[in-house]
Amino acid sequence: MDALENLGRQPPGIYRDCTxxxxxxxxxxxxxxxxLYGIPRVVIGExxxxxxxxxxxxxxxxxxxxxxxxxxxxxxxxFI
Length: 80
Description:
Structural class: alpha/beta
Radius of gyration: 13 Å
Mean pLDDT: 92
Strand content: 15-25%
Strand order of the largest sheet: 1-2-3
Low-confidence stretches: none
Largest sheet: 3 strands, parallel
Distance between the termini: 20 Å
């Protein structure tokens, strides 16, 4: 959400060509923003510590790439 706010208002076509990168699986609020902005692709660092609204995003045609990165898992385990 913060990244989208910091990007500022852009023409809608910009978002359709974007890939969003995130440390963990998007929560329902972030998933809603992804759909609202029309972002077609999300790269997720890990989804072990938190499985967000991935099914909802997939159901709406968003491509999800889960890296299952050990560094992301460790960082989130320490954070949580």
